[in-house]
């Protein structure tokens, strides 16, 4: 997982077109973020949706309209070029997956950087806890739940969760550790019976890959950053741009800075 | 301080015009909140100012435009009548202090409920820590600092802090306790030398009343909810409505629910 590259190195490789795939393990120790870009007219209800649903939508930074520079999390970066891959959504449908969005940029675009579970996974690994999807070298399994988010019209939808299996004593430690990171989803929302939150089959995640659950382990569920993406798609806005799955924005802040206590 | 009245009792007394003064000590154990009401056109930059300055501006709830009901924190309340006293600001100047704002209400008004230090003071008192301004039965002393908030145009300004003196061991405990309450200002921002944050004379607060500092005690400074009010006044918007100092909105949520960990 570890990489000696700096955040600026990773962003430069993305800008040059050399890095077009996932950023997992890049610039180890630095915070990676989900990206959502919207026209100004939709920025208030989207920020409100995030304020009302802070577990799945922990906002790290919101840029000024038209400004592609995240001045607090990476003042030398350019959000139009510095991610490996983007997704362009028109009327809720995927309309393209470019590696640069300079030609699509508009003066009324507002960018949201949203916390990502990579941050707390680093803390779990440093505490010696096993993180199954990292052990299996695949994506974390994610599931749609029956838990409704608090709407902020036109944004609404159900909570999406990620799952990591742990032995009970490990799960308790994982709850303690992730509680310290409210800016990146914080404590879990559920553990144990998946049916209680509307998940039918852990072996068939809605996003990502299935992972093994060993004897004695309990599935533990965290609010997931895919939740705002689902709410965005359901709102069928004329134009939204996001990062491509796994191709996050690498910031200049350290994961440890995000620890709340 | 304690009161057997329910939040609904306190709100009804305010609505009827029986309670027109401070809410400190009313509906003990329930969260009280600062109120800011703005036209929709200013709601996005103000929410952004709060997002960028979460210590002084911890947003508890934002209502839908035109809706006077805080549906998450007190679904049976009416923000136009249920505070003891309001302040109406026109172009940054105080233009009135009514006990009811029904006649001023507009379809484009958005209301913000912002966390208040009463919540963490309850936790400090329950831990047996002395809270000097409560002992002296006066308002907490508050000071303008030299620390600039992160602007969100048209909103900008310096941080305002409240001060409570403690012995060092008490201060450490107070840091631990308030860290658990990020939704109501969280951990302190400074302790010790007031000059380091631009405060000239602790005996002359900019807001509230001075308090005694006993031998061996250190002043401890927390981000204060007056900060967004100062930013609002400086922006000189045509119309803003806030609560009158000390006359807070009493919610149905318990202080203990706001503990982050």
Overview of this structure, please?
Chains A, B: This is Hydro-lyase. Chains A, B: GO terms for molecular function: lyase activity. Chains A, B: Belongs to the D-glutamate cyclase family. The structure is a homodimer of 261-residue chains. Chain A is of the alpha+beta class and 261 residues long. Chain A is built from six helices and eleven strands. Helices cover 22% and strands 25% of the residues of chain A. Chain A is globular, with a radius of gyration of 17 Å. Chain A starts with 6 loop residues before the first helix and ends in a 7-residue tail after the last strand. The A-B interface holds A 40, 43-44, 47-48, 51-52, 59, 62, 64, 72, 150, 153, 179-180, 182, 186-187, 260-261 and B 40, 43-44, 47-48, 51-52, 59, 62, 64, 72, 150, 153, 179-180, 182, 186-187, 260-261.
Which stretches of chain A are low in confidence, meaning pLDDT under 50 for 5 or more residues running?
A: none
CATH topology category name of the largest domain in chain A: PSTPO5379-like
Estimate the global geometry of chain A from the Cα principal axes: globular
Structural class of chain A: alpha+beta
CATH superfamily of the largest domain in chain A: PSTPO5379-like
Biggest interface pair, counts: A-B, 20 and 20 residues
What is the helix fraction of residues of chain A, given as a range? 10-25%
Task: Please give the domain count of chain A.
Answer: 2
What is the element string of chain A, with H for helices and E for strands?
HEHEEEEHHEEHEEHEE
The total beta strand count of chain A reads: 11
Radius of gyration of chain A: 17 Å
Strand content of chain A: 15-25%
Overall mean pLDDT of chain A stands at 94
Largest sheet of chain A: 7 strands, antiparallel
Kindly report how far apart the N and C termini of chain A lie. 26 Å
Oligomer: homodimer
**CATH class annotation of the largest domain in chain A:** Alpha Beta
């Amino acid at each position: 997982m570890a990489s000696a590259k700096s955040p600026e190195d990773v962003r430069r490789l993305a800008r040059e077109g050399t890095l077009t795939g996932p950023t997992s393990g890049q610039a180890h120790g630095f915070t990676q973020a989900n990206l959502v870009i919207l026209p100004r007219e939709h920025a208030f209800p989207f920020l409100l949706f995030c304020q009302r649903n802070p577990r799945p939508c922990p906002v790290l930074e919101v840029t000024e309209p038209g400004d592609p520079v995240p001045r607090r999390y990476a003042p030398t970066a350019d959000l139009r070029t510095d991610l490996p891959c983007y997704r362009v959504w028109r009327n809720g449908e995927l309309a393209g997956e470019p590696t640069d969005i300079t030609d699509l940029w508009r003066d009324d675009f507002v960018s949201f950087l949203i916390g990502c579970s990579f941050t707390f996974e680093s803390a779990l690994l440093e505490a010696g806890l096993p993180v199954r999807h990292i052990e299996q070298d695949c994506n974390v399994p994610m599931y749609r739940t029956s838990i409704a988010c608090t709407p902020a019209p036109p944004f609404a939808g159900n909570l999406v969760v990620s799952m990591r299996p742990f032995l009970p004593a490990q799960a308790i430690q994982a709850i303690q550790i992730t509680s310290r990171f409210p800016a990146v989803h914080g404590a879990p929302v559920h553990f144990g019976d998946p049916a209680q939150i509307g998940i039918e089959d852990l072996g068939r995640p809605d996003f990502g890959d299935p992972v093994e659950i060993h004897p004695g382990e309990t599935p533990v569920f965290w609010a997931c950053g895919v939740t705002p993406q689902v709410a965005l798609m359901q709102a069928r806005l004329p134009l939204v741009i996001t990062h491509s799955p796994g191709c996050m924005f690498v910031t200049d802040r350290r994961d440890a800075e995000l620890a709340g206590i």
